[in-house]
Amino acid sequence: MSKKGMIFSGVQPTGQLHLGNYLGAIKNWVKLQDTYNCIFCVVDMHAITVPQDPKALREATRQTLATYIACGINPENNIIYNQSAVSGHAELAWILGCNTPLGWLNRMTQFKEKAGEHRESAVLGLYGYPVLMAADILLYKATHVPVGEDQKQHLELARDIAGAFNRHYNKDFFPIPEPLIMGEATRVMSLNDGTKKMSKSDESDYSRIALTDSADTIRKKFMKAKSDSTMGFESLDNRPDAENLLTIYGALTDTDMKSAQAKFRTAGFGTLKKELAEVAVEKLSPITDEVNRLMKDSGHLDGILKRGAEKANAIAEKNLSAVKQLVGFLEV
Ligand code: TRP
User: Fold this and answer.
1) Residue 268 alpha carbon to ligand 1 centre in Å
2) Distance between Cα 40 and ligand 1 center (Å)
């Protein structure tokens, strides 16, 4: 069967992957793998834009891969590898960086948020990160990129960079990558605060469901999740905590938000949380078990990454060589 186009996406190997990564990204990738040629990267070069412990980074890279596989991504039919194993990412990022006006980067809200008041001490890598992300995508001439809400601006920039390169070299070289915005749960919020994204870096463990949490922990976390004083789910206006829990329920059971809302219309939080915990345990336990099983054999995981990197590199080298030709690098 011929496939529709080329997909590239990635997750950073930092901390524990959580429910937000699963529902917002990886679960959707599983559905895409039959229709598109897919490259799913563990973006370790992105991870070092903030300080990482080397040993923990290696483990997190394997764990991210194990999670991809446990969630149902097939390493035989797709390309799965870690970013640093293909040197083309860094090479193309440099070339693209030479076509990216600073004014474009200055608009990136994620940098502003992350650097905060410490702009002077923020590192170049954090600032240039969106250029690396553009390189990830364009290195494979990806046509579609599944992204969550928070990465939309970076993808928009990647599109601008592709256009600028094409114009500069007067050639339709890079396809302009299209976003694939996925279903209901693209935004899973913190269980402590429905206005903040569920995040690996939140200091409270209770703010997120990790994909390695035991069934008991999952239950406990949902029971403790923040709720508000209004009982039913008739209206969700200005009730981010209630909305978040319903969104998660909807995504886990593949029902739309309206049906989820109707189901719990008059029920209290107690009822919703209990059901949510059971659904989450049922869906996540098999994944958790598989991640833990795969993590026992690092040789096997490393072998998958190595084969993935070889396949990725074959495509990357070809495209990069054409880029170097356009740019005027002498290849001897
Ligand atoms: N920046 C993305 C994130 O933090 C990860 C990422 C890196 C990515 N390169 C990418 C996502 C290319 C999509 C396409 O979530």
Assistant:
1) 38
2) 10
- 108 and 224 in one domain? no
Do 165 and 37 lie in one domain? The reply is yes
* CATH code of the domain containing 245: 1.10.240.10
- Nearest-CA residue for atom 13 of ligand 1: 9
CA angle (217 as vertex; 71, 280 as ends), nearest 5: 45
CA-CA distance, 297 to 56, in Å (whole number)? 17
Residues with catalytic roles = 114, 197, 200
Ordered per-residue pLDDT tens for the chain, 332 residues = 577 899 999 999 987 889 988 988 898 899 999 999 999 999 999 999 999 999 999 999 999 999 999 999 999 999 999 999 999 999 999 999 999 999 999 999 999 998 888 889 999 999 999 999 999 999 999 999 998 778 999 999 999 999 999 999 999 999 999 999 765 546 899 999 999 989 888 899 999 999 989 999 999 999 999 988 888 888 999 999 999 999 999 989 988 888 999 999 988 899 999 999 999 999 999 999 999 999 999 999 999 999 999 999 999 999 999 999 999 999 88
Q: Are 10 and 73 in contact (CB under 8 A)?
A: no
Inside any domain, residue 198:
no
For residue 216, which phi and psi values (nearest 5 degrees)? -60, -45
Distance 197 CA to ligand 1 centre (A): 16
CA distance 138 to 162: 7
Which residue range(s) make up the domain with 281?
A: 205-293
Cβ–ligand 1 contact at 37 (below 6 Å): no
State the angle between helix axes of 152-168 and 124-139 in degrees (0 to 180), rounded to the nearest 10.
70
Ligand 1 atom 9: residue of nearest CA: 133
**Do 11 and 146 lie in a common domain?**
yes
1 falls within a domain: no
128's tokens: 């240039």
Q: Give the CATH number of the domain where residue 305 resides.
A: 3.40.50.620
3-class secondary-structure state, position 77 = coil
Residues 161 and 282 in one domain: no
Domain count of the chain?
2
